[in-house]
Structure to design on (456 residues):
């Protein structure tokens, strides 16, 4: 099994070298060496490593690998050894003539994840009150494009089953070089670092079939519970998760709540069996309710090609994640901030999309936006998130606050717009917002939609 594993990665390294994917070649060579690649053939891997380091202008790593190559040929037959000594001499000359610059090499990181302890910008603060319970508001004026939440790593995560073979189970990134769990072979990672980070939860889950087939919400709740001994811990991070909204009063009598209670009992059995901890089913039930409301469906843009060789991008849901700070942001159908993820991973960023004044709340969109019918928006939010939206366009009497929308700039909120060549222009931003004809047509269409909705 070990030889097959190491040989597979050794063969993959040759493929990556052939197509000039040098970093991936280095990764595969290192995996094969660590997995016990046969010593009689390990010189092949060292040669590929040297070639990759030379191409990447990494003189230090190339020189170090050359010494390993020299040591590895001592056990080989004389004829083979003589041929390799000539190859070593050639590489030695190349390395000596390389410029003396060093690029960062791939290293196996420790089993600790580099958490961003203060991802929230110093321009915002968390506010609690009796109406919204929690909210993020601006301390000072925030300009359009400013970063509000920077590189927040999930508190817990769970990948969707349909992406479990193609994406990293820890960071959700698309996998090029696969690092699999040697015990269960189900868990897959994009790097040795992610594999090490995931050991904090996968080590206990490994080998249990239920974690391969259970719903993502169940896995996510289990991982939240397993992170801390919540009965005695005063861990502030866990307390922040515990204080997230549940809307239990609105949901307690719904039929689907019975299924959540059933799933909570399964998690209780798993935690007590795997970790040997006695857990309160009410706490697990609370986390299950919180996940449905506060978790993020982490998305990524994937490219698809048509028969005409035209590429189209689609937003694809990769997995579920819950964040300490990201989960505090409330919804608006006309948000002033937008969510995105760093380099195809589950690292969360939130950026402002317009000027936000002091003490204004910062919103992002949970899904329903202002381009949808007002009745549909309210129904979706009520059925999925169990609250009635009270953002400014949902509180208007019409399907859309058309006049307000087209009487102010979306970027600086300037209400003194100018009409130049049949287009609305903002003199402050010096940009064209929309044509007058398009604005009138949009207003007419939305008024028609509102009349149709009102007739139901």
């Amino acid at each position: 099994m070990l030889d097959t594993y190491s040989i597979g990665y050794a063969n993959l390294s040759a493929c990556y070298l052939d197509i000039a994917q040098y970093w991936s070649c280095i990764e595969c060579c290192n995996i094969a060496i660590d997995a016990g690649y046969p010593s009689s053939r390990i010189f092949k891997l060292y040669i590929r490593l040297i070639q990759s380091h030379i191409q990447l202008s990494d003189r230090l790593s190339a020189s170090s690998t050359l010494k390993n190559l020299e040591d590895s040929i001592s056990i080989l037959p004389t004829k083979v050894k003589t041929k390799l000594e000539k190859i070593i001499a050639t590489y030695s000359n190349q390395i000596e003539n390389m410029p003396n610059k060093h690029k960062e090499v791939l290293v196996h990181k420790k089993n600790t994840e580099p958490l961003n302890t203060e991802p929230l910008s110093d321009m915002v603060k968390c506010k609690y009150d009796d109406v919204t319970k929690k909210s993020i508001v601006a301390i000072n004026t925030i300009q359009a494009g400013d970063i509000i939440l920077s590189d927040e790593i999930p508190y817990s995560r769970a990948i969707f089953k349909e992406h479990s073979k193609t994406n990293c189970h820890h960071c959700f990134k698309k996998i090029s070089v696969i690092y699999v769990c040697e015990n269960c072979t189900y868990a897959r990672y994009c790097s040795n670092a992610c594999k090490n980070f995931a050991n904090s939860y996968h080590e206990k889950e490994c080998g249990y079939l239920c974690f391969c087939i259970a719903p993502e919400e169940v896995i996510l709740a289990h991982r939240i519970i397993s992170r801390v001994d919540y009965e005695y811990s005063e861990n502030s991070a866990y307390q922040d998760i515990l204080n997230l909204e549940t809307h239990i009063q609105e949901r307690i009598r719904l039929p689907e709540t019975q299924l959540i209670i059933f799933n909570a009992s399964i998690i209780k059995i798993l935690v007590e069996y795997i970790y040997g901890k006695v857990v309160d089913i009410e706490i697990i039930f609370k986390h299950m309710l919180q996940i449905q409301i506060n978790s993020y469906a982490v998305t990524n843009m994937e490219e698809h090609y048509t028969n005409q060789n035209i590429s189209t991008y689609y937003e694809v849901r990769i997995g579920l994640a819950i964040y300490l700070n990201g989960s505090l942001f409330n919804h608006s159908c006309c948000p002033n901030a937008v969510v995105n993820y760093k380099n195809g991973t589950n690292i969360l960023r939130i950026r402002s999309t317009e000027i936000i004044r002091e003490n204004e709340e910062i919103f992002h969109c949970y899904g329903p936006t202002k381009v949808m019918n007002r009745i549909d928006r309210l129904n979706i939010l009520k059925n999925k998130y169990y609250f009635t939206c009270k953002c400014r366009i949902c509180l208007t009497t019409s399907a859309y606050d058309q006049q307000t929308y087209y009487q102010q700039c979306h970027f600086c909120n300037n209400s003194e717009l100018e009409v130049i060549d049949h287009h609305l222009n903002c003199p402050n931003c010096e940009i064209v917002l929309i044509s007058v004809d398009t604005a009138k047509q949009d207003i007419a269409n939305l008024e028609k939609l509102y009349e149709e909705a009102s007739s139901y």
Notes: The two ends are 65 Å apart (CA to CA).
